[in-house]
Amino acid sequence: MADRRLVCLAALALFTGCGGGRVRPTANESRDPGGTGATGAGAPTPAQGRVLTGADDGFTGRLEVGQTARLRLPLPEGGPEPTAQGESVLLIPVSNVTATGHREWELRAVREGTTHISVPRPATSPATLTFVVP
Predict the structure, then answer these.
(1) Alpha-carbon gap, residue 7 to 22, rounded angstroms
(2) Going edge to edge, which strands form the sheet with 103-109?
(3) What percent of the chain has pLDDT over 90?
């Protein structure tokens, strides 16, 4: 009798799609195949805790008020600075990374809106990162 129950439970798990506790994306969602940071439906990707660089040109991310991401660039001290257009995300310089040859900024969401960050890149046009704060 116990063996029959086990077989029934295994069949039930197979037919109901037991995924080990993982949430499956719906048919309209994708997992950012192009690396742009946007989902298949065009919604921004969560950016909380992410470290971005000039290679992330075109990235669109979502931060909730109070959340942060990082921008890390191989720029010399006193060199070009990233700039923010919009008031929803602040660019805050981080100290003690110049010995690594990089400079870093904290990107902190402070109010609803959209901010575009222009990121200087050597020998090419600036990269653009977009942050949406709902």
Answers:
(1) 23
(2) 51-52, 68-73, 103-109, 89-94
(3) 49
